[in-house]
Amino acid sequence: MELYLVRHGESTWNRKDKIQGQSNPHLSEKGIKQAELLKKRLMDIPFDFVYSSPLKRAYKTAEIVVDGKYPIVKDKRLSEIHLGIWERLPAKRLYKESKEFRDWFVKTTEVTPEGGESLFEFRDRVSSFFDEIIQKNSGKNRGFIFSHSGVISIWLASLLAMDINKVWSIPVDNGSLTIIRIKNPQFLLIAFNDTCHLL
């Protein structure tokens, strides 16, 4: 089985450098174009199942790429990490003004934003999704997963047995494609943060 992991196209808040988390901005015009370019790249590749985060920026990306060919199953476990009181704030300003926010990038397991989700809670949520759908779709060839940078990064960190405090050092760009081939018990990284379709 191969899993095609897609980070949503650029959102209106990505453009404004605002912290999103589980807030729900739309795709920007650039984000829509990124999704259309990914659709063109993948249009001849058949898929057996499609899952998406219910957040608008991911689900709209899925709708554009899938183009009505397959049903899209929404799953809340694919939502981005909940960042509590940090959401909606300008990232650069918060980084300058908040030691807690700065610490979160280097010792994430020790810092949880007020009203937000701990990194361990996030990891367990994301892992439960992937464990379930891999088992449920055993024997199938290929699946699409439309989600967020944090979701893709935390799952990759788990697969690679990384220190999860370093999860934010894993780059996952808007509109990028990461492909994992599963040959139990092996997970093979076929493509990582691939954006050649956006060039």
What attributes characterize this protein structure?
199 residues, alpha/beta, Rossmann fold, 6-stranded mixed sheet, 6 strands, globular
Structure, explained:
The protein has a single domain, classed as Phosphoglycerate mutase-like (Rossmann fold). 37% of the residues lie in helices and 17% in strands. It has 7 helices and 6 strands. A 6-stranded mixed β-sheet has the order 3-2-4-1-5-6, sandwiched between helices. The longest helix is centred in the middle third of the chain and has 18 residues. The radius of gyration is 16 Å and the shape is globular.
Task: Write the topology of this structure.
Layout: E1 2-7, H1 12-16, H2 29-42, E2 49-52, H3 56-66, E3 73-74, H4 91-97, H5 99-106, H6 119-136, E4 142-147, H7 149-159, E5 177-183, E6 186-194
Parallel strand pairs: 1-4, 2-3, 2-4
Antiparallel strand pairs: 1-5, 5-6
Helix pairs in contact: 2-3, 6-7
